[in-house]
Amino acid sequence: xxxxxxxxxxxxELIRWRNPLHLFLLATREVFRPFVYWYxxxxxxRDLRRPVPEPYSKETLQVRIYEGATGLHKAVEDLSGLDGLxxxxxxxxxxxxxxxAIAYAAREAVGCxxxxxxxxxxxAFGTRxxxxxxxxxxxxxxxxxxxxxxxxxxxxxxxxxQYARKRGMVCTLAGISALNSQSRNLPKHxxxxxxxxxxxxxxxxxxxxxxxxxxxxxxxxxxxxxxxxIRSARxxxxxxxxx
Length: 243
Fold this sequence. Notes:
The protein contains seven helices and twelve strands. By secondary structure, it is of the alpha+beta class.
């Protein structure tokens, strides 16, 4: 019931940024939520050894980077009003070495993005990211509803990428729902390469999950949690933040 009420509150935003086909697919998925659930993620890769286009937001915002214990109290305070993360979750992420970028309009936090250097972050249904020694994962992007449509995402993304470069990373990865039209504008503008599309189909009650990757082998970027209902399709190849 709590999840359903949360989805109802987000309904205006879901309608605002999505085309009719995406809305139909989202609505169909929610109807069958008690029995089955599915995701389709596009996996994007950014080579940090190549030039990165400038942020395309016209807003004048300050972006601050948080890491470790530095500014932990302020990060917890600002995020509690931004995307509802529990203080313990923010503290845990920063203590394990994740990095946080927050965009501010005056003193108001209006957008954020996380960066992790560790493998094991869950995409969904026991499917976990696998990172190389010089790779990092961008995740947890969020923009206040009143600020969406102003390319705030591009500002926090740029700050995260510049930080990753200073840490010696050569590549960043990100997974974006194929139905998240707004978030997909960023990789399109930055000309990030889509390396694969991952389909996850989970049957509730049976703990059974069907996985399929198109574009590259699933195991090239993901591992599966032991004991989680597993069935992975053999990848097929083509030439070509979760909703």
